[in-house]
UniProtKB/TrEMBL annotation:
PANTHER family registered for this protein in UniProt: FOLYLPOLYGLUTAMATE SYNTHASE, MITOCHONDRIAL, FOLYLPOLYGLUTAMATE SYNTHASE-RELATED
Listed GO MF terms: ATP binding; metal ion binding; tetrahydrofolylpolyglutamate synthase activity
Classification via InterPro entries: Folylpolyglutamate_synth (IPR001645), Mur-like_cat_sf (IPR036565), Mur_ligase_C_dom_sf (IPR036615)
UniProt entry tagged with the keyword DNA-binding: no
Identification of the protein by name: tetrahydrofolate synthase
Reactions performed catalytically: (6S)-5,6,7,8-tetrahydrofolyl-(gamma-L-Glu)(n) + L-glutamate + ATP = (6S)-5,6,7,8-tetrahydrofolyl-(gamma-L-Glu)(n+1) + ADP + phosphate + H(+)
EC numbers: 6.3.2.17
Origin: domain of life: Eukaryota
Pathway: Cofactor biosynthesis; tetrahydrofolylpolyglutamate biosynthesis
Length: 342
């Protein structure tokens, strides 16, 4: 909450013309939902997340999300799933708001491989138009405005690919069932269908070589979502597609000087740690679902990255999907020496 309050102060002091706020959890009781007269409200795809405070069902979560609707503000959403749409429509009617559902605008420029990005850019266009219609009637974004906006778009750590020697890293901070599905579909699309990644393989592997070795690095420790379900869903999407899975707690490096480790059937893990117990459970879940996969635990992100690199062995190309946590992805950025601004 303190960050929201601080931003109100800074934006008012600086006299900004337009502020875009993303809710932290839900909407109805979110700390950002104190703005009396928003111009536009919008809801992006809804997944099972923050179930401790918003759940347990997708309908409960949708009810909370719709709390951002306000009389007098445009209301937009790209959530068309029947159960979710029904709740959103009911909440809009309750609040006296006309809700508009947005579809994919295939005429928009830009090369976005993931479906969720194509949906969100379509919603962003509608939000911009709705804002202009209310604040500057008669004005619309020009084609040049849209092209320039898409050109400047950057979201490090979401559907991002980095080439580093013999490893190609697919970085995605997905952390709930909906986003890990998108991350898995993106990686599989790149590996097997995308012309972009076919060029990647051609550039890094000898002619006639087999598909790259595939490794998953996963970290997430949360008491606010059902991570076991997230992991099971990811395993379902990645079934038989990954040869090695590395679990870690997501720390960049060991804290302090006490670096004692304990061993279990999956390798070293941090000693006397609740996090160690959690990621050991993750390893057991994956091994149960994918008995043929090589499953291991790394105490830190640096260890996990090194293990993934070693997994390449003599192979000329290894594809590594890093997902489960934005913190994990940020740490991998540092280890790979990637400037986040890029």
């Amino acid at each position: 909450p303190r960050y929201a309050v601080m931003s109100f102060h800074v934006f008012l002091h600086e006299g900004v013309d337009l502020a875009v706020y993303e809710t932290h959890k839900g909407g109805e009781f979110d700390q950002t939902n104190v703005i009396a007269h928003p111009v536009v409200t919008a809801i992006t795809p809804i997944g099972i997340d923050h179930i401790a405070t918003l759940g347990p069902s997708i309908e409960n979560i949708a009810w909370h999300k719709a709390g951002v609707f306000e009389v007098g503000a445009a209301a937009l959403s790209i959530c068309r799933e029947p159960a979710v749409a029904e709740v959103l429509n009911a909440r809009a009617a309750e609040k006296g708001v006309m809700l508009k559902f947005v579809g994919v605008d295939h005429q928009l420029p830009g090369d976005f491989a993931a479906r969720v990005q194509r949906l969100n850019r379509s919603l962003a266009r509608e939000v911009a138009d709705a804002f202009l219609a209310r604040m500057s009637p008669g004005q619309r974004l020009s084609r040049e405005d849209i092209v320039e906006g898409m050109r400047q778009f950057s979201w490090p750590g979401r559907f991002q690919t980095i080439h580093d020697g013999r490893c190609t890293w697919f970085l995605d901070g997905a952390h709930n069932e909906l986003s890990v599905r998108e991350a898995a579909e993106y990686k599989l699309h790149c590996l097997f269908f995308s012309s972009l990644c076919q060029r990647d393989v051609a550039d890094t592997a000898p002619r006639g070589s087999a598909l790259p070795r595939r490794v998953l690095v996963f970290a997430q420790v949360s008491h606010d979502r059902d991570v076991d379900s997230v992991l099971r869903r990811l395993a379902q999407y990645m079934q038989h597609k990954v040869q090695e899975v590395i679990f870690t707690v997501g720390k960049y490096d060991s804290y302090g000087t006490d670096n004692r480790l304990t061993s279990n059937s999956y390798g070293p893990a941090e000693s006397l740690s609740e996090e160690s117990t959690i990621i050991t459970r993750y390893a057991e879940i994956w091994q149960e679902l994918e008995p043929q996969a090589r499953v291991s635990i790394s105490a830190t992100t640096k260890d996990a990255v090194e293990r993934a690199r070693m997994s390449a062995g003599s192979a000329n190309n290894t594809h590594v999907l890093v997902t489960g946590s934005l913190r994990l992805v940020g740490n991998v950025f540092q280890i790979l020496g990637v400037a986040v601004a890029s």
